[in-house]
Amino acid sequence: MKPKLLIVDDSNVSRLMIKGRIAVLQPDWEVIEAASGDEAVALVPTAKPDFITMDVNMPGITGFEAAEKIRQTDQRVKIVILTANIQSSSREKAEQLAAKFVQKPVTQASMQQAIDYFLATP
Hints:
Strand order of the largest sheet: 2-1-3-4-5
Helix content: 40-55%
Mean pLDDT: 94
């Protein structure tokens, strides 16, 4: 079964950039998208992604709130908080959610950092 990645970001451009980088680095992965934290929370139970990239600042609930809700129903999914929000409090919150913090912008290096985390053994 192909690994499944859920990209959560309110910016269509960011989602396209992430999707493009993933297509180069992991062409066999299935990619699905959500434009908000609320949409992601609703999608996870049926889509059952293996991995999630989560933006923080979005309309509705934040990425942190979405990750917290997702964690309540799915402990196995690996989440990368992918954000330009580089304050130490954001890094600490990601750690509390058992998520990896990766700083935007979306580059080959930042996507490789996310993939390395996704593919690391638990």
